[in-house]
Each structure stands twice: as C-alpha cells, then as structure tokens.
C-alpha cells in the first residue's frame, strides 16, 4: 500500500474514546483503532479493561481506563474529561456500550425498558453532546454509534432494545445533519448477528440459532474482528464525506 493511501486510514496521534471496551465488540474496536495508531480511553463498567489496556500498550499506544456506568448521566462528563486531561482532547468517539433484555412486550418490565434506553440511547446522546462540543470547536471529529439490525427491523421479544437501536440510527442522522458542514462526521455501524455475550441466548436456542444462520448469506455468525476494518474506516479521513450513514456489517443479512 502506498503511503498516500495508508495516510487516509492512519490514526496516529488521535485520541479515541470507546465505551464497553472491556469485552465483546468494543474490545475489538478499541484494539483495532490502536493498531491504526490511536491512543485510547477505555470505558468499562463491570468488566476489567486491563486486558484491552495491555493489548493497546503492546501496540505502542497509550490507554487510560475509565470505570463508570454509562446509564448514570451525571458520570458521563468524567469520560470526556479523562480524554482531555490525559491526551489533550478527543478525536474519535465510539458509542458501543449496550445491553439487551429479552421478554415479550406484554411482560417487558418498565425497569428493563428504562435501563435499556438509558444505556443504549440516553448515554449515546449525552456523550455525543459532550464530545461534539469539543469536536465542533476544533472543527474535526468522528463519532461512530453502534446500531443494530434492529435499527431497521422489529426483532422478537426485545421491544426496548429495538426502540433504542432505531433511535440510535435516527440520532446519528440528526447529528450528522447539524455537524457535517462543521467537519464532524457522525455515522453508525449496524453489526449483524455476532458471536458475543449479547447473543449468547440466541445462539443457545437451537431453533432461533438455525433460523438466523440460514438467513445470513455469508453462512456464518460474525465475530468481533469483522468490525475492525469498518471502525477504522469510519474513524479515519478515508470516510470524510460520509455523514449520517448506518453501515451494515452483517454478512448480507439485510439483503435477504
Ligand atoms: P456484550 O459482549 O454483551 O458487551 C456489552 C458491552 O457493553 C460490555 O463492554 C459492557 O461493559 C458494556 N456495558 C453494558 N452496560 C454498560 C453500562 N451500564 N455502562 C458501561 N458499559 C456498559 O455485547 P456486544 O455484542 O459486544 O455489543 C456491543 C454493542 O454492539 C452493543 O451496543 C450491542 O447492542 C451492539 N450489537 C451487538 C450485536 C451482536 O450480535 N453481538 C449485534 C448488533 C449490535 P461491562 O462488561 O463492563 O458491563
């Protein structure tokens, strides 16, 4: 690859904040961004992010862990403050932390609905606001929100999750419309069915597992490595003319 092309994807010296960076998709994205050159603020709640931090540091980058519950709105400024204190600012925000609660709508407890919206949507809005303010001031920034196939479809027995992920897609477009002309790109990645803790219940259900696999043209569940390339692309100058796009990384699921 020539250096001109490599520069388009290079994140050297950039500061990235990734929520949910201790495991699953967020861990892979964080390490992928470090591979491309970024220093990382690793946001985690219950899982230690020590493994992610070591991986980032082994790549020669710097990492700071912020342990916090993103559902607690009052704590969210500490995440952005950590990026500013440690690295002098923020260039990339990946809103990845997410939860799912599976029960039919009639039985869906209001507390589950609320918790899912707090983690999957409300934290995304507030972190976009906080990071967006700094990015608008500096005239550049990349925000990547993690959406879902359920940003487009209804799903089964996950009404709160579906509502939150539809809203994440809408919010991504709304912010992109406001910020695109000011140098800040806001986009989303919609992962397909990926083998992580989030989908363990589905993968353990032989009927649903088979139904899902049968619909994936690529013929396999995704894994967290599948998101690294798309995340680097959306975090880098290679995607400077992309605004408000929801990029499906789904083995072709949405085409069926
Ligand atoms: P996962 O393995 O269950 O990991 C969830 C992540 O979110 C963990 O890092 C977790 O941190 C973090 N998190 C949850 N609640 C949090 C809170 N209150 N505060 C801070 N962090 C919190 O799930 P995943 O599959 O990697 O999912 C990552 C994202 O991709 C989610 O937004 C999910 O909706 C989305 N997604 C996943 C799939 C899939 O097939 N797996 C498909 C589409 C979209 P702790 O471990 O510290 O709690």
TrEMBL record:
Top EC group: oxidoreductase
One Pfam family cited in the UniProt record for this chain: adh_short
Keywords annotated in UniProt: Oxidoreductase
InterPro entries: 2-deoxy-D-gluc_3_DH (IPR011286), KR_dom (IPR057326), NAD(P)-bd_dom_sf (IPR036291), Sc_DH/Rdtase_CS (IPR020904), SDR_fam (IPR002347)
One example of a Gene Ontology biological process annotation: bile acid metabolic process
GO molecular function, one term: 2-deoxy-D-gluconate 3-dehydrogenase activity
Presence of keyword Oxidoreductase: yes
Entries under Gene3D superfamilies matching the protein: NAD(P)-binding Rossmann-like Domain
The protein's Enzyme Commission number: 1.1.1.127
Membership in a protein family: Belongs to the short-chain dehydrogenases/reductases (SDR) family.
Protein name, entry field: 2-dehydro-3-deoxy-D-gluconate 5-dehydrogenase KduD
Name of the gene: kduD
